[in-house]
Amino acid sequence: MPPKKAKVQPKSTKQSEPSGKDNNEGPRRVIHWYRTDLRLHDSPSLAHALSLNPTALYCVWTWDPHYVYRARVGANRWQFLTDSQRNLSESLTSLNPTQKLLVVREAPQTVFPKLLKQWGITDVVFEKDTDAYARARDDAVVEICRQMDVRVTVVKGGRTLWDPDEIVKCNGGKPTMTITQLQAAGAKIGEVDRPLPAPTSLPDVGDTSLEGVEQSVPDQKPDFNEGGRQEGEKENSYGGGIAGPNGDFGVPTMEELGLGEATTPHRGGETLALEVLEKVIADEDFTGTFEKPKTAPTAFEPQSTCLTSPHLHFGTLSVHEFWWRVEAVLDKRRKEKKPVSEPPTSLHGQLLFRDMYFAAQAAQGYYFAQQASNSICRFIPWHLPSTHDISSSPIPNLITGSYTIDSPVAEQWFQRWKHGQTGFPWIDGLMRQLRTEGWIHHLGRHAVACFLTRGGCYIHWERGAEVFEELLLDHETACNSGNWMWLACVAFYSQFYRCYSPVAFGKKWDPEGAFIRKYVPELAALDKKYIYEPWKAPIADQRAAGVVVKGEGDVSGKGDSVQRDDNGSMVYPKPMFDFSERREICISGLKEAYAVGLHGDDSRVLDGSWKALFKDEGEGPTRGQKGGIGGDAGEEDVDKSAGIKQEQMTPRGKKRERGQGTLDSAFKKTRK
DNA sequence: TTGATCGTTGATGGT
DNA sequence: CACCATCAACGATCA
């Protein structure tokens, strides 16, 4: 447990004006609505709830069908979330035996009116959340409270260093696109809030009876997580009523979710989060001189970074707590004249980037997570573009969650990437680590994201973002979409000629290939000379290592089981393309798209006429005059194209392989 | 206006 | 091992 906290500043200035009841007198029956703050230490919203001196305190988590069915959440993240909830619940109970986390199994928009009435609630307190869906959800709850004459207080700034909306305001109303802009805006707001101490006692919970309260069972379709559920298992977390099958507001089990055991070794909960923090802070050299680009993405047991990102996401670790604990180390080292690292590469720098993405997202809303209608996102005619709902309401033109297969080859590349079967061991090792452990190093994310988009497959960054959304423990839309746009060179970053090699990049940190030997066991015995390029190993060397390099990989399974051929030899796939050739194709594609210069909110992107601006032979679904995003699929178009004929696509690919000259001329195309 | 500089983390082939 | 120029060359910022 951390030592005593810094002096507490009153948080009153950080709250929204409460709405609803003006009357402060009388007994207060308060709901503290938990969402992104599954902790006791430094919870400004919990502190505010306690400052009301409630006669009854309800610690509520609403089990939101939006998260269960419409977000992509894999088994590992469910485990992390539910572990965090159980841990918080135990902490609440330890402060007051009547207390626990009350998991309410219904959408907040429908259940709040019932709870407010049933439990005689006078106040609702929760932490501000600037995610696009969260804003709409919270507006609805605030409105419900207003109508029912219940006071509601939205406490700002607990999730990020500064309130994202205030950052945007201080950045001229624009999304923060560089770390310098973020720092300047932050400086205008002022010092990061100091952390608050954990409460030492809690008031009792009130009556939690739900007698006569009917559960509104949510629509289970569409279920974006259907594919991840166990064979034959059904998602049933709403099956036992509002208070769950035992009627005790318990945390849903993996079984109820229709999920198998989590495979990740990284577990959730504030107790573990604080242990991790203590360990990081205790290593003063590490904390004081941390430089992200110098940490090895190949390191495992232990990893080269802190693994705190999932805890920041779920709020089991306070970002303010983290900031000030690091600052204390830096301060000490400065006084001792020891070297300290600086943003953007330092630990503080990492937290600043997170705030940069949150503020950028706050300014863009739903569109931050997609290309179409996103004014900061460059338009590139990527393979596997999303389908859109032009008339989605109230926000038009949102992506639907499905995509067009404009190229069967690209779809095959995507599946091989997703399952760690690309034939590039560095990429496959990372993707398998992601799937089994739910976490990979930041630079590993760079490697696989570059490979999928601008540095290999030329596949839409939204496809990659969706896979990360499902598999990452630390997934949060702001950072995920932001980083994907960064790596795809469509926003935040534009030096697309700086391209990560799937061979050289990993080798730089791990020439022996220890990382690959762990995560790609087929190659464990291969000589280090071939470990990053096994297709170059002579047959005799392959045989000696007990592996055969052949075929196109198995994308049916989870990508973490070893394939064998009829002779019992392990099989590892051949590389799915020639990387340097693909690199050239991608760079020329990016160069052309940059010259065309469209952004996601351009009318030509939305009506499909963007095609007329691209050369037909350019990479991606560029043929014809109109079609693709938001437009009518022309006759020649490759929409609906699971159907697109293999024979149409393959020759295009072959033509490229031979005709590098054509591409070089495209590459030299002048700008504007 | 324009040119120089810099930007979280490239690869290669030098010294 | 640290540092450098080259490769080809984006865009925001600032003098």
UniProtKB/TrEMBL annotation:
Residues covered by region (Disordered): 1-28, 192-245, 614-672
Keywords from the named record: FAD, Flavoprotein
Keyword field contains Repeat: no
Keyword Flavoprotein set for record: yes
Cofactor (UniProt): FAD
Limits of the Photolyase/cryptochrome alpha/beta domain: 28-160
InterPro entries noted in UniProt: Crypto/Photolyase_FAD-like_sf, Crypto/Photolyase_N_sf, Cryptochr/Photolyase_FAD-bd, Cryptochrome/DNA_photolyase_1, DNA_photolyase_N, Rossmann-like_a/b/a_fold
Matches recorded under Pfam families: DNA_photolyase, FAD_binding_7
Gene3D superfamilies, per database record: 1.25.40.80, DNA Cyclobutane Dipyrimidine Photolyase, subunit A, domain 3, HUPs
Comp. bias (Basic and acidic residues): 19-28, 220-236
Family to which the UniProt record says this protein belongs: Belongs to the DNA photolyase class-1 family.
The protein's name: Photolyase/cryptochrome alpha/beta domain-containing protein
